[in-house]
Amino acid sequence: MKDFNIPSWFDKSTVKHLRLPFSFFLMPVFLFAVSQVSSINWETTAIAFVILHLLVFPSSNGYNSFQDRDTGSIGGLKHPPKVSRNLYRVTLLMDVVAVLSGFFISHIFSLLVFIFILASRAYSYRNVRLKQYPIIGFLTVFIFQGAFVYLMASSAAVSSFSLVNFFTLNNIICMSVASLFIGSVYPLTQIYQHDADKKDGVTSLSYKLGYNGTFVFSGILFSVATLLLYYYFNLRQQQMTLLLLFLILMLPVTVYLSVWFSKVRKNKNKANFENTMTMNLLTSTSMNLYFVVLIFNNYINWF
């Protein structure tokens, strides 16, 4: 019966490995999707936000930690504590709660959550471990943390959702932008883990690209995402003020990445945990702020 003492599962190590604050870095895609909904169902949107950011994403973090058993720095944890079986139990519990809670929104949302969890497990699970392959691992994150999260958020933010009618040109562009944004950041989060990944049998895309190549690749994807965003605003005949605001809010990110790239070119040790987390925080804060402004703009019409 001791194993079924659920509160005891949430020990200090387990809670740390869930990395709840890391959900802030995954928030922009959700907010982007909500910002593009003309009439938001706030109740289902709030439920979806909690399910994804307090259950699904932390569970994914925890399961990845359980499989990796890292001793060096990982995303959101500079000194990760030793994992225990409790971490596995908690991630399983959170997954079940997330899927069941999804039915409060719709059966489609619950199914999408289940599919996301399966993809996340395939990414981390030792006997599958998609993350060990540079291209497949990248595409898994590119698709599921980008376009797929956009789809999940969109399905929850409206009162009536049709999967058949969802894939319009506008939504396909937005899903592409979401994936490109994720894809531009993801290799940079791997840049300080080359040695640790190699010891664990993981060949990351960042390792394949090299330090300089990682920055160039990320810059290209971010530029393509920005161009697509420009095309999307033109397509919807929206004011270019929205794009200008995006460029202004992303200026600190651009400056930071340029300075960081310059430092890494001179000293590879600058591709470290601290600089990566600063980049994550700065990028996520700027994007979250931008998409929150877009959400309010739908009601206040500032632009």
Automatic annotation (TrEMBL):
Topology in membrane: Multi-pass membrane protein
Chain segments annotated as transmembrane: 20-40, 87-120, 132-151, 163-189, 209-233, 240-261, 281-300
GO cellular component terms, A-Z: membrane
Predominant location category: membrane
Keywords: Membrane, Transferase, Transmembrane, Transmembrane helix
Pfam families noted in UniProt: UbiA
GO molecular function list: transferase activity, transferring alkyl or aryl (other than methyl) groups
Keyword hit for Coiled coil: no
Gene3D superfamilies: UbiA prenyltransferase
Subcellular location: Membrane
Protein name per UniProt: 1,4-dihydroxy-2-naphthoate octaprenyltransferase
Classification lineage: Bacteria, Pseudomonadati, Bacteroidota, Bacteroidia, Marinilabiliales
